Amino acid sequence: MFDVPATSAPSASAAARPGGSGVNRRRDVRTSVKFTACVRQAVSGDEIVECDDISKGGASFRSRRNYEQGSLIEIAVPYSPGGHAIFVSAAIKHIDELPARLFRYGVAYLKSPKRVFDF
């Protein structure tokens, strides 16, 4: 994968969101996407969701489920039912309420702890 430098200009998806300030405070540039992801949470199980955008540090998805801000999830993105999924830990960082009882969630991937091996 390649690194794209972040710019100070607002991202298209941030400016287009209701209530968006148009100021990009993100470290990583987002890319608009249209594919599914699988969100996993111990309490509520797996849910297939539609992703709106993705970056090196996180993603956003739409869901009818009510996830709490700050809650921990695992997400496999992109996801294909029946395929091999790689889940990564993430936290819900942002919630937008959309019409028709739909929510858009912004998640940040969590860094895994560094492992120290004894040889």
Give the gist of this structure.
This protein is mostly beta strands and 119 residues long. The chain contains one helix and six strands, in the order αββββββ.
Word description of this protein:
The protein starts with 11 loop residues before the first helix and ends in a 10-residue tail after the last strand. The chain has 119 residues and is mainly beta. Mean pLDDT is 80; it is low at 1-19. It is globular. It contains 1 helix and 6 strands; from the N terminus they run αββββββ. The protein has a domain at 29-109: predicted glycosyltransferase like domains (Thrombin, subunit H, Beta Barrel).
Notable characteristics:
1 helix, 6 strands, mainly beta, 4% helix, disordered N terminus, Thrombin, subunit H
Main sheet summary? 6 strands, antiparallel, barrel
Radius of gyration computed on alpha carbons:
15 Å
- CATH architecture of the domain at 29-109, please? Beta Barrel
Instruction: Output mean pLDDT.
Output: 80
End-to-end gap: 31 Å
Q: Which segments are poorly predicted (pLDDT under 50) over 5 or more consecutive residues?
A: 1-19
The CATH C-level class name of the domain at 29-109: Mainly Beta
Inertia-based shape: globular
**Count of beta strands:** 6
The CATH topology of the domain at 29-109 is given as Thrombin, subunit H
Number of helices: 1
User: Order of SSEs, N→C?
Assistant: HEEEEEE
Strand order, largest beta sheet:
1-2-3-6-5-4
Derived structural class: mainly beta
Fourth-tier CATH superfamily name of the domain at 29-109: predicted glycosyltransferase like domains
Instruction: Determine the fraction of residues in helical runs and give it as a percent range.
Output: under 10%
Strand content: 35-45%
